[in-house]
Model the fold of this input.
Amino acid sequence: MKKIAIIGGGASGMACAVQLARRGADVTVFERGERLGRKLSASGNGQGNVTNTDMSAAHYFSDDNEKVARLLSRFGFEETIGFLESMGGLFLPDGRGRVYPASRQASAVTDLLRFELARLNVQTVFRAQVKSLTFSKDFFLAYDGGGVHADAVVLSAGGMAAPNFGTDGSAYPLAEGFSHTVAPLSPVLVQLKCDPSSVRGLKGIRVDGILRAVKDSGEFSCRGDILFTESGISGDCAFRASSHVSAGDKIEIDFLPDVPIERLKTAIERGESDDTRLLCIVNNGLGRVLLKKADGDKDTLLRLLKHFPLEITGTLGYAYAQVTRGGIPLKETDDHLMSIFQQNLFFTGEILNVDGECGGYNLQWAFTSAYAAAEGILS
Done:
């Protein structure tokens, strides 16, 4: 019986442990925190967006999207739903293809995995920060409180995003000890920062708008929730855009995407004064800011309503990000995500240089990579 050590008790680590234990492996999960799946329990704004029906490698960013496509073809959204429902529960898509548990409780998804691990007698060691990983005839893990030998190791310890859940990048050196490199890291699925003067007076205002960015690589646009903050923008649309834009990029917001410009122009001209010009057209607070910026010019006001300009100066960083971009290059692994430098060393989840768009794609990668590693270990 193979003895497997999994470093990290997040979504991919737990899923890999279940896959392995169901097929008879002796599995131990080493979790640096005091409970499993803390980040999973907060996913999808606490509702648990586990995957998406519109699943393809086009929704991912990586150094090897062809490999991402191959892995998704082996374990995509249907397989993920089947895997989760094999433990219980019901998972349903919304109108945008985002798949959630019917209860809309991310913590319940964690519980499904946690209870399955207990049923399968998977051992979990908590408060176990792995300090070193070496290989002679087998692997030896030294951690706070002791050390163990293992036939295979799965590095599932996450990236840099959301360090409050214990993901602080401390696992990268374990991979570097086996000649792996780390692709440049940055936070994504995160609030965007702008010049504070450009959003002054807008804090707390929420709109359903279209965000557009024109880059050398082409135009990106998305429609969704945009929430103005003291330093920039947040909300679903901003999080999605954060995967595509970077500091220095210029974006624009259409506050009224369902209103043709000619109809909007007519509505503006009906207003007899600035006191009434934007009533029942946009949020009153937003209207006051736009009117002040337009300074009485109707053409400028019309342009601001349909093409409100902002320049991205950065993000709020890892502390507020959901996902890390960068990590162990996929090209340094085989099709089972085993290291090309060290036999029986596998990687899953966010530690790899794969990140997905907002909408369940990153949890799908967690489950896909967990399956690939488990298949490689047991083949």
Remarks:
- The CA atoms of residues 349 and 365 lie 6 Å apart.
